[in-house]
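Hi V.,

You were right to ask for the full record rather than a summary. Here it is.
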Amino acid sequence: MRPDTDKDTGTGTGTGTPVFVDAALFMGMHSGDDAVRTAAKAFFADRLAAGDAGRVLMSWEQVGRCDDLVWGYDRKTQDEYYPFMDVLHTDLAVERIGYEEADVRRAFTAPELDGLPTHERLLLAQVANRGGTLHTASPRLLRTAGLPVAPLVPAGAPSPDREPAFPAYLEDLYQRSLVLTVDSDTL
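Predicted structure:
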């Protein structure tokens, strides 16, 4: 854990609700659906521009789900993709965290999580136990009532007039990484 992190809230600032992201949102930046791709990119570009206030949390398993998806592509595609992911994870200061025993217990006892796949139950229990909100591009999670989730684009929000951009050094890596495209249904 970074030394500037508030261990009670996980926000790094001592205020606000912890912001969690999942593999669906992270890999959404490479979605074949341009609306999903642009919205996911805007989310991360905004968080990066916010500095320390934009920090996000991601479970180790969700990081691994991103890797698992990328490892399914050929080596050349991986080599074009990973520099972007590595730099964004570092510059955004993504805090990668593991599950705690309370997360595992809640995942299999909370009625609102019944029927969800195990990986989503674990993630949502982790989010709930920390008083956080999960930002996701997962249609399944977004249509399930009673979960601590936020849509990629809030209802009624206008679409961006143009595609958001990362700082130049990262935008170049992002453009190169777009050789990897993900079917939105796999998110």
